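Field: sequence (string)
Field: structure_tokens (string)

Example rows 1 and 2, in order.
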Amino acid sequence: MATVQSLSTALKKTSDEVIEILVNAGIEGKTANSEISGDERKILMAGLSKRGSAKSSISVSRKPSTKSSDGTGGVKIQVKKKRPIQAPITPVQDDAAVLKAKEALEAGRKADEKLLAQDAKRQEMTRLQKEEAEGLKKQQEQAKQQTEKAKKTDDADSDDKSKKPKRLRNTSGADGRKQLHVAKKNPSRKLKKKDRTRLSQKIQEEQAQHGFQKPIEKVVREVSIPDNIKVSDLAQKMATKAGEVLKVLMGMGVMVTLNDVIDQDTALLVVEEMGHTGVVSKKETIEDKLIEKSKASGDESTRPPVVTIMGHVDHGKTSLLDYIRKAKVADGEAGGITQHIGAYQVHAKDGKITFVDTPGHAAFSKMRSRGASTTDIVILVVAADDGVMPQTIESIKHAKSAKAPIIVAINKIDKEGVNLDKVKQELSVHDVISEEWGGDVMMIGVSAHTGEGIDALLDAITLTAEILEFSAVTQGPAQGTVLEARLEKGRGKVTTILVQSGTLKKGDIMIAGLEYGKVKQIVDDQGNILKEATPSTPVEVLGLSGVPDSGDEVLVVESERKAREVADFRKARDREAELQKQQASKMDNFLQKMEEGDISTVNVLLKSDVRGSAQALVEALEELSTDEVRVKVVSSGVGGINNTDINLAATSDALVLGFNVRADAMARKTADKEGVRIEYYSIIYNLIDDVKAIMSGLLSPELSENIIGIANVKEVFKSQKLGDIAGCMVEEGVVRKDSPIRVLRDSVVVFEGELESLRRFKDNVKEVKSGTECGIGVAGYDVEAGDQIEVFERVESARTL
């Protein structure tokens, strides 16, 4: 602990001076060897601060000066500062305790000085504010007194005196000397520039000290995220720099700019990564309002069940439906394969049943998924001779995702040697268990050729429908789903829809996806023109502005203006999503090219007879893309190939594929002129195989190496003309001149190069066969006796997908 003596040495003062300061502060009884506590040291520092602040004083003196124009003498105020009295410097003792006390005292002194400075600033601010208030109050009282005095006396002198400003009035004291009156702070008086600056600086310092405190904890914000959002808007919502958001996105592998749009899922990940809480925006759009307003309401009534027939290709789905409908639909399909979604309504003995036939080929996976999403019951057709196949498994997945009950129809039981138990065993592996085996799935053997088991299948459908009690609202505006859409010559845009609720009437304003229009005609599956269509009825509708996509929702609205607004809203939303997709694709392609080099591309322009086939073909072609060759569908559409399609194909160097459509005369002429290749197809297998062949032609050839000969080095001869020549014995195969070779030493490759010369005795030869001696010249390497020379050839072979 520090003593009075050590503190006086550190402060460069005498012990008496330190004791005097302590006495003035109320601490008595201290001697030079007395110890000083922490509290006493603080009192000592406060006393030193007060003593230091009292070292300056103000003295007022009157000095002769020139008189002013009004006859008054000038008065000057001088501020004199006394020089600090320096205490005699005593040598500092090399005592560890003294040094430690000195350091502690210095640290305490600095802390005390900082606190005192802050207190002084606050006191100065309070004093200025108090002086302003007192000066204003005093000025008001003096003005009141002067007004009363002016009323009581008519003396001109006293009247003049009362009118003079206070700062010009001087009074005489008893000794005849004039006294100086210094006015208080007057807020109404305009301050000089330097005074305003000094005051504003004090206020700023005070506000800087006490007006703001840096937040200790990070602010966690709740950020509302819509379906799509710009990067800059996302940064603004989080109150952070856009550069920080870009860094997070780059760390996630998303290369975007400030004005690019990202999807909702990506934005939620960014918000979570930056420590905030992301909330999915529930903003109601014009589309949501219209859908809510157009929903049919009222009492529900029983409706026919919608049954979807699914299964593997060529397992007899359409043939089974043909027998039920007593028609030959399969004969009309190319190759006997269903390539469109067909919907039909049949009359069973217990009521109507609506059937939806879906394609079985792998390319139509999305079409089967759309069929399953609109169905009540799934009929899974499995051929008794083939059993469970890939599309059978896929159909089971679609049915389970749609949560629709499954009825298995085991077809082709009329063939010899079929085993139904084997089919049931294969189905049980995929969690489709027969009722006979303790499951909940009805399995019925049928024959689409003889009609055996068809009645039992219809009874099973009717029984399932009665148990599940399918119902819908029949009154009000209609709602449904687009099953198929196409362009038909003489009729225009034809859309096949399935009405799911409400009643569709002729003249209704209908919106389907991005298209809208007035219903001009309603036709059923038999070709009959209807005035209205009730729930579970498949119909063809004419009157839409374009060809919608399969799976689009159908909605009847009150006016064409509302339908146009929703269609425009959906187009803008899809355009923004497409722009986002293109932006991401450009960046991905750029990065991919940087990593792997240029990628070969097959550009394709696709035209189809119906929208569903076009969608399925686009998905199938894009799935063919590999790391080296990819398929890019430049454009896809419905209808014949026209001149505009050919011009687009010529510009983008694309191959034109027509699926069940043809090019008109003008298009064919332009194609010949521009050199555009047009290919027509009616079966999907052939189209996909041809595109695969084109892609295979763009693949780089595969290089392989074949070892054609091995020679052992017996001795090395040195020649001035030819250099080192290895005398060899050909052990295997053939050694050919100008072939690539490898030199092996102890079965390890030590050199790879070219065979420079090949001699048999003194003659140059082109090849030497096994069991023959020869001389071999190796360029760029010193061969030793005992080495092996391996001769090989490189072979290029075409690759296929």
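Row 2 begins here:
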Amino acid sequence: MPDTVSALGAPTERREGPDKVAGAARYAAEHSPEGCAYAWPVPATVARGEVTAVDDEAALALPGVVAVLSHLNAPSLAEPDDATLAVLQDARVPHRGWYVALVVADTLEAAREGAAAVRISYAEEPHDVTLRADHPDAYVPEDTDGTSGEHVRGDAEKAFDAAPVRVDADYRVPPLHNHPMEPHAATARWHDGHLTVHDSSQGATTVRDVLAGLFELPKDRITVVSEHVGGGFGSKGTPRPHVVLAAMAARVTGRPVKLSLPRRQLPAVVGHRSATLHRVRLAAEADGTLTSVIHEVTAYTSRLKEFMETAAAATRVMYPSAHGRTTHRVVPLDVPSPSWMRAPGEAPGMYALESAMDELAAAAGIDPVELRLRNDTDKEPDSSLPFSSRHLAECLREGARRFGWAERDPRPRARREGPVLVGSGVASATYPANASPSRAAAHAYPDGSFVVQVNATDIGTGARTVLAQVAADALGVPVERVRTEIGSSDLPAAPLAGGSMGTASWGWAVHEACSRLAERLAGQEGQPLPPEGVGATADTAGTADADSDYARHAFGAHFAEVGVDTVTGEVRVRRLLGVYAAGHILNSRTARSQFIGGMTMGLGMALTESSTMDAAFGDFVESDLAAYHVPAHADVPVIEAHWVDEDDAHLNPMGSKGVGEIGIVGTAAAIGNAVHHATGVRLRELPLTPDRVLTALDDGS
């Protein structure tokens, strides 16, 4: 029998790695069919109003310009469910940066020059882009998915007022932007009534279905390919305007059209994390046992469609209390539509909750790790469902051991190295462990090789490799004999890569298909396979999406050590350590990469990443990587990720939980708590920039 014991969990190298290093991996904008034209969009320069005139004469006179599309001549689309895709359909301007025209040309340079030559006239209207907790238009959204709206248990206000230990604090997280290394791009081509699109997307099946609806085509007349994707972080989770514009331009011109969005335009058109305002009130007995938890969140949405950053959802999961209230309020503004960004809801929400827990530990005189251990639970507080597995305590204890927490002097400002104050902090983390229905096919060939097909998307997570490991484990063969085919809507339909449930969803279907294939092969033992081989399929609808009697979540603990320069205000993270309980780890190499990537992104959230909405112009000030600062390797010298391998029978056949997002969830809070320990002053607004740190030090001295 072949050795397949290590198929799942082994640090198998990513299969596409050599192609990426060699430049052989083709991304959406690297496909150039014969006769390919190039497109460049024209964004609106007002925050609200209507287009009154489009002067494209100068643009059309430029050499190489083929066409200028606007609401006056663009093809009509069917009304989409997502209003952000109704591009060039009418004269309205719902926010600055909304696309009002598209220039198509023979070359990229001509398209860009043509876009600059288009003159748009507007009837401008008053706008409002300012989020405030007391905004008169704020409302509680309908709780359609169990995460938005308001959840109440007991009498949280009365219990808070009666408690001997209390914390009442406001926290603020600014708008944050998805800036994947590969900008949003698509290459579209119509041929004999069939639309083929290479799109930078986290889910080709979804893109195909949406395009079919917009262009009123049968789904089998559209092929969407997303074979390699250079990051997404949620911004490529559903179709964005670029793919619609590329398909539209290709239809009008009769030529293949390539559109790669300029990075400066991304903040306005591909989604972002809404700013969130938090008020957290925690009440506890003298021993730190929580009696009341109140978390109120106010965020904004656009006037195009409602999106709520459900930042209080994680609070409903973390710590038990007899009384609790979590509320989401949303304010419609004249801003670009917010959408998913890595760990939507959990990332900003756990920053606020875990910062408040640190403040509660100080108020009660209890070690921050010990406070969290005292408030551990085996049931989800809001639903009372038992957790399928919850090893938060093990993560906290193991993290404290590895970090050397016991040697920490609990007193703030106790450790100084010249002008630098040194401190350490801790925070817990959680993220849901879900799955969606998926289809998959598996095929065995006479030469002993196997092919697995599923329309999964590899956004840099190693999906090709991990799915091969899942297949090899189910088939009982070495992983080298399994080939995976992913990234095309012509393959068996699959959900998008998002919500930390891609591998759980696709892997479930792959496991079922391969298990059925293994049974079929066992029945043919001793008989040669036919030349075309044999296959099996699976569809997990009705099982992967079935209700569970358990609350299923991953958990983790983050530890950070920082140095705060009292002269410059700089915060330098010296060490980051995360310990996670995320089910059975399917590939130790790719999992560690995902954990570390999330932690690094959390470092950016804590220290460098921030966007400012200009109230006068209705525009994001930080719109490119020169102004919007993402962290680099040098920003954290030491970063470690470890895990507690769980045996959870209530998840999926692999026993896995998602690992792509939990790494970001607690990192910002751990860093913020470390800054408080170092300095003795509490900063409650991210990011912790030098100006804010110096102001806090001056006020606290």
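free_text_note (row 2): The radius of gyration is 26 Å.
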